[in-house]
Amino acid sequence: MPDEGTCVGVEETIGEVAAAAPGGGGEETTQGRDDVKNFVLFGDIHKSIYFLSWKEQGSQLSLLAKDFGSLDCFATEFLIDGSTLSLVVSDSDKNVQIFYYAPKMVESWKGQKLLSRAEFHVGAHVSKFLRLQMLPTQGLASEKTNRFALVFGTLDGGIGCIAPVDELTFRRLQSLQRKLVDAIPHVCGLNPRSFRHFKSNGKAHRPGPDNIIDFELLSHYEMMSLEEQLEIAQQIGTTRSQILSNFSDFSLGTSFL
Asked: How far is 107 from 109, CA to CA, in rounded Å?
């Protein structure tokens, strides 16, 4: 257990488990609860997220790790990519963060602390995540058949999607994204990458990894002239057909939208 004295009060109910958020001191309010197999994810309205394991024997919840930040949670959900499990949370500052559990890494404080995998400023309050299995496509065919995306809704009526991608495709599209920041005109001359940076509203925050690509920005590639598309593809060491193939795979893989 992360710290001595940490406890979780549990009572059995029909079809689910009701639990007090782990930790001590002050009133805590559980904002959301999600589970995958024997893992449970709790989001607290003021104290970020908690990652727990559930044991049928003795009906016991054990705290595995948590985020030590003072995050005001709006919604939580698990993101599954094959055997990789990530923990996703949205907050009151209109951000989405993705965490992971890595007890063998030194930065995790012997497994007590959840580590940051990615962060992204949505620009709207995400109130709900819905986990849906991605559809198989020829371009995305791999050993990761158990691959899910998260569809989310925002309080201002927007809909978005977070989906996993293989490393090679990610690096290619990340390079394209960097090129498009300078290659296309933006509304009022604003920088789209700067807008997507995590907003902490004055709170202390260490920037997380830049591991999310903005498909809203990438979609401008298809609106460019053929000559511009060919030139940019050559500059990042790929082809126009390869980029468009990646776009097509994403569209087909998330065609449940």
From this structure: 6
